[in-house]
Amino acid sequence: MQQILEKKEAALAAAIDSHHKEKERMKEEMEATVARHQIAWQKTADAVDQFGLEAKQAKEGSERAFKEKEEVVVKLGKTMEELETVKKRAEEDKKESDKAVLEAESKAKAKMEEREKEAEETVKAAKIDCELRIQALQEQLRGAHDNVADAYEMVSKAQSECVTKVEESKERERVARKEARDGQTKMMQELKQVQRQLAGVTGAKDDEIERLETRIATLEVTIKSRNAEARSLQEQLQEREREADALSLGNRELSDELSQSRWQVKKLEERVKELQEDAKITISRAVERERDVLQSMQGELKEEALLEAALERAREEVASLKKELKDQSERADRAPSARIEMEVNTLRSQVAALESDLVSTRSALNRMRKDEEERIGELQKDIEAGDGGGGALAKDLDKLLKLRLEVSDLEGQLIEAKDEIASLKSEVEELKKEADLAVVAGQKRETEVVGKSEVSLRAEQEEKERIQSELELTLGRLLEAQTMLKEMEALRSKLETTEKALESERGKRLAKEREWVEEREKQDKQHDETVKELRSEAEEWRVKAEEGDYGKVERLEQASEELRQAAIQEMESLQERIDTLDASLEERHKELEEEQSDHKASIQEKEAEIAKLQSSFKSQLDQAHTKLREKESVMRGLQTQIATYEKAQEESFEEVKELRNRVAELQQTAVSAHHKLSQLHSSAMVAHKDAITDL
Predict the structure, then answer these.
(1) 10 Å Cβ neighbour count for 86?
(2) Helix, strand or coil for residue 185?
(3) Residue 198 DSSP label
(4) How far apart are the C-alpha atoms of 194 and 186, rounded to whole Å?
(5) Which contacts (CB < 8 Å, 24+ apart) does range 533-539 have?
(6) Ramachandran assignment for 97, one of left (phi > 0), alpha (psi -120 to 50 degrees), beta (any other)
(7) Can you give the pLDDT at residue 92?
């Protein structure tokens, strides 16, 4: 009997040892699988770190683009300030200089109207293009916002599902623990009953029986615990299979989303290419317009040269007229005095010759009157010619200002095209980031299969929160893009207001010129009235002289001297006016030369700036192409990583199947062990009965 019991004990010990060995082997395999999953987790963490670095680089690129935009805005402000300074100079020049002539105004107005019409047509076309582009960008932004909202909803759903699954697993573990405790209590009660039944056995047999019972109890407890663990493992495997099915569906959805995002990225790349072509076309148009402007400037410079030649001719004519006026004044000073002396001597000597002397005085007065009228007409012609030259110069300045305004409008159009291309680039980068985030979310969903403990679940929740924060950042960037569009609209409104202000200033200038013309006409009328008064006085004196008397002759002599002095004073005043006009014309000519040199320098600077902008634009496009290529390479690397993760998932599924098979084998071994234990228990009962009978 003892030999049988010892054999049974040896068999039980061997079974227990084999069971422990299998348990240790299972632990080692589980540790190996955990190590593999940790390696996969480290790979995903490295990929996430790489993605974070790329996101930082993209953010730095966006900040650089924003800084470039600010620099462009500062340049625009500087150009506006230069325009204002030029306007002030032009106003001062126009206030100081004499105003324009009506003949040159008609031609200048026709040219300016044609140019204004062309500029308005170009501005309208540019506005329509900008509005269409803004609408397309808004539609694209709405689509991107919808995609981000869908991704956010998917992430929230996945979080809720994970939380519910974790809670369910915790509840199941609690139920299994309670069942194990209940089983243990029941087994203890049964053992106590068996011990009470076996209390009658005495001596060494009782000790052996108790020892066997304790071993049997421990074996039963271990078997029950193994059965419970096997059941829990089966349940966990079933749950993991369900989760794997759900993840496979999620992966399919993510693959569909990735295909859609790639399709959208291709569309955006095509859109970027179209915009690049449009930008090239606009640049070529701007270059052609600049050439046209330069040609028109050359034509205007030729016209200015012709005007300068006409001014020199007018100066020569004025100098010749001055000489003639001096000669005439000397003759007038000499001739009347000699004649009056002769007449006085003849009157003193012979009273009878009075009538002949009166006739000579009449002829002299008529000549003086004619000479004065001729001089006044010539001076008026000279003044009008000087005014015409000043007006033509003022109109040339207006033309130059308008040409500068056209150049500034073209620069504004180029800047707007650059801003639109930069906004499209930022949108492409944001969409690529969203696609990368979707890939990372899929990878994280796959890694959820590996996580078994609460620590892994917490880490996954933290990563999901980080994904949510990144999505919020993308939404903030989209809002910043919308604010940038609003700022562009505000800048356009400012440009429109400046154009309106320029038109109002042009109207004011025309009104001032008209007022000046009216004042000049009033002065001419006053001068004509004074001439008429002088003529009437001369006729009165002539009538009095014809009535004749010695006292009248003396009065006539005094009146003639007064008239001669007044004529001399008028000649001096006219000479002073002519000198002032010559000085003002010379100053005006110098100022025009300086302004022409300044305009040429500013045009050269603008050309250099345009060339710099073109080069910077090309460099930015090249950088954007390189970044797109880098992103494509990163996407390919992520695709390869996804393929590796899918392979790892398949391997994990195979390992799970192997674990299931091993659990089934363990269950079979547990059933066989239970069967053996029942046999041992029955044999022990038989032995107990035999022992009782023997006693």
Answers:
(1) 19
(2) helix
(3) G
(4) 12
(5) 535/369, 538/365, 538/369, 538/563
(6) beta
(7) 73
Answer yes or no: are the C-beta atoms of 408 and 79 closer than 8 Å: yes
Pair of tokens at residue 201: 């056995």
Question: Smallest Cα–Cα separation from 92: which of 583, 588, 601?
Answer: 588
pLDDT digits (tens, 9 = 90+) for 175-202: 766 775 676 566 566 656 655 655 554 4
Phi, psi of 201 (to 5 degrees): -75, 140
Query: How does the average pLDDT of the chain come out, rounded?
Result: 64
Distance CA 502, CA 398 (A): 11
One-letter identity of residue 348: R
Q: Name the amino acid, one letter, at 391.
A: G
- Let me know how long the chain is: 695
Rounded to whole angstroms, how far apart are CA atoms 421 and 524?
62
**Cα–Cα distance list, 487 to 129, 164, 481, 484 (Å):** 18, 47, 10, 5
Q: What is the DSSP letter of 263?
A: H
Q: How many C-beta atoms lie closer than 10 Å to residue 563's C-beta?
A: 19
Total Cβ atoms within 10 A of residue 266: 10
- pLDDT of 586 > 70? The answer is yes
- Confidence bin at 388 (pLDDT 50/70/90): very low
Whether 36 has a pLDDT exceeding 60, the answer reads yes
Residues 298 and 287: their CA atoms lie apart, in Å, by 16
The parent domain of residue 298 ranges over: 2-694
629 pLDDT more than 70: yes
Check residues 35 and 217 and name the one with the higher pLDDT: 35
Cα–Cα distance for residue pair 252/258, rounded to 1 Å: 10
Question: Are 316 and 604 spatial neighbours (Cβ–Cβ below 8 Å)?
Answer: no
* Residue 14 token pair: 């061997």
Residue labelled with tokens 């770190």: 49
Which residues are CB-contacts of 436 (< 8 A; sequence separation ≥ 6)?
Answer: 51, 54, 634, 635, 638
Which range (38-47, 572-581, 656-665) has the least confidence?
Answer: 38-47
Provide the number of structural domains found in the chain. Answer: 1
Between CA 461 and CA 454 the distance in angstroms is 10
